[in-house]
C-alpha cells in the first residue's frame, strides 16, 4: 500500500489534481452568490447543498477565506504555480497539461465573474435580471464542479481529455515531451 503511495507517478497524478483547486475557489463565488440571490421563497438554492459540502465537509472554507483575504498575495502563488508546474520541463507532460488546463479554466471563469459582479450588479438590478443571474450562476457553478471532478478523474487515470478550446490551448502551453 505505501509502496504505491510513495511511487513518484502517483504523486504526480495527485499533484495534477491540486491545480484544480483554482477553478473550485473561483466557482465558489458563484455558488455563494446564487444562494443569496435565490428568488424562490420556499426551499433552498440548487447550489446550497454542494456549497455546504465543499465548505464544511471538505474544509474548503479556510482556503476560500484565505483566497478572499489574500489580495495580491494570491497572484504571487498563482505565478509560482505556473513556474513550478507548467513551465517546468522536468515535470511529466500530464502534470503540465492538467495544471495548465486548470489555470485556463480559472482564467475563463474571470469573464462571467466580471459580467455578473461588475457590469450587472446583482443588488441594484430588478427581479427579472436577478432571476436570470441566479439560474446562470447555478448553471456555471454545477458545470464547473462536475468539470473539475471529471478532470481530476482523468488526471488520476493519466488521461487527457478533449475540452473544446481549453484542452487545445493547454496542449500548446504544456508543450511536447
From TrEMBL:
Family membership noted in the UniProt record: Belongs to the Tic20 family.
Top-level lineage group: Eukaryota
Alphabetical UniProt keywords: Membrane, Transmembrane, Transmembrane helix
Cellular component, GO annotation: chloroplast membrane
Keyword Membrane: yes
Transmembrane segments: 12-31, 62-81, 102-120, 132-156
Organism: Zooxanthella nutricula
Localization in the cell: Plastid, Chloroplast membrane
Protein name per UniProt: Protein TIC 20
Main location class: plastid
Membrane topology, from the record: Multi-pass membrane protein
Entry-linked Pfam families: TIC20 (PF16166)
InterPro entries assigned: Tic20
Amino acid at each position: 500500500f505505501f509502496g504505491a503511495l510513495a511511487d513518484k507517478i502517483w504523486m504526480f497524478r495527485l499533484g495534477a489534481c491540486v491545480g484544480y483547486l483554482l477553478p473550485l475557489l473561483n466557482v465558489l463565488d458563484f455558488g455563494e452568490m446564487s444562494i443569496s440571490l435565490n428568488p424562490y421563497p420556499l426551499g433552498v438554492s440548487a447550489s446550497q447543498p454542494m456549497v455546504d459540502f465543499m465548505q464544511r465537509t471538505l474544509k474548503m472554507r479556510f482556503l476560500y477565506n484565505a483566497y478572499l483575504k489574500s489580495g495580491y498575495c494570491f497572484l504571487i502563488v498563482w505565478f509560482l504555480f505556473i513556474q513550478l508546474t507548467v513551465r517546468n520541463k522536468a515535470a511529466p507532460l500530464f502534470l503540465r497539461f492538467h495544471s495548465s488546463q486548470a489555470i485556463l479554466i480559472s482564467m475563463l471563469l474571470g469573464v462571467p465573474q466580471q459580467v455578473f459582479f461588475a457590469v450587472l450588479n446583482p443588488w441594484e438590478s430588478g427581479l427579472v435580471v436577478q432571476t436570470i443571474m441566479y439560474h446562470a450562476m447555478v448553471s456555471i457553478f454545477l458545470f464547473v464542479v462536475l468539470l473539475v471532478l471529471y478532470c481530476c478523474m482523468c488526471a488520476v487515470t493519466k488521461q487527457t481529455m478533449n475540452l473544446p478550446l481549453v484542452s487545445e490551448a493547454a496542449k500548446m502551453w504544456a508543450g511536447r515531451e
